[in-house]
Amino acid sequence: MMNLEGSSNNYYSDLVEWSMFSKKDSLKYGFINSKGNEVIKAKYTYASDFYNGKSNIINDSIPGLLFENGTKKMFPEYNATFWYKGNLDIAIKDKKYCFIDKYGKVIISLIYEDEFPFYKGYASVKTNDKWNYVNENWLKMFPDSLIFSYSPIINNKAVFMIENQKVEKNKSMIKEKGSRTFIEFLNKTDHIQLKEGLIDIDGNIIINPIYDEISGFFQNGYMRVRKNGVIDVKGKAIIPIQYDDISDLKEELCDVFLNC
Description:
Layout: H1 10-19, E1 29-32, E2 38-44, E3 46-51, E4 54-59, E5 62-67, E6 72-74, E7 80-83, E8 89-93, E9 96-100, E10 106-112, E11 114-115, E12 122-127, E13 130-135, E14 157-177, E15 180-200, E16 205-211, E17 213-214, E18 222-226, E19 228-232, E20 237-243, E21 245-246, E22 256-257
Antiparallel strand pairs: 1-2, 3-4, 4-5, 5-6, 7-8, 8-9, 9-10, 11-12, 12-13, 14-15, 15-16, 17-18, 18-19, 19-20, 21-22
């Protein structure tokens, strides 16, 4: 998972934890200060960390928003809500997604199949089973001919994918009978290989889509790509793209792994 300003994984893992949270948990959540004094009573079914002065809460299956002064705003009309660091909240109702502000005003109606919070001016949204991005003016960023995931735009650049070629794969079915296991190979199925590249918010291709996978962000001027190696900002291979695994580049050194 990519590192966003040092808060590794928080952008997604907290969202996943929130969305999968079991309301059967008997624990109650509240807040204490650095001295261990209770500042907000433990009375919520769930409460996240505070992001820009706001915490995601659930109280008796109703999602809401808790402010640092202890006031809250509940949203009983939605199945779930989530706030990260921007000025808009994700709201979900009947498997449709929209954006609302902290008062509950609908900014964009329930039109998305999935979405992730705004990060530095851009949000990942899914319509017609395709991911894309919108800016704060709600304009779609890229043409539908490109393929994206939910990963955020970082430093005004996004990872995109194109279909490369079809490869045949054997589809297998395993049957167990007593102590014996039978593997039945079915008809071959076509599998589309995707190649990844990097594009900026103006639509300029920064890295051509020739890699199996790229990290999507530069660290000290370099980016990891798979089959693993390191390229610079111009796409030049600094470490050959031939390794099975590679660590982050630190002080111009990194660990590489090759299965022999």
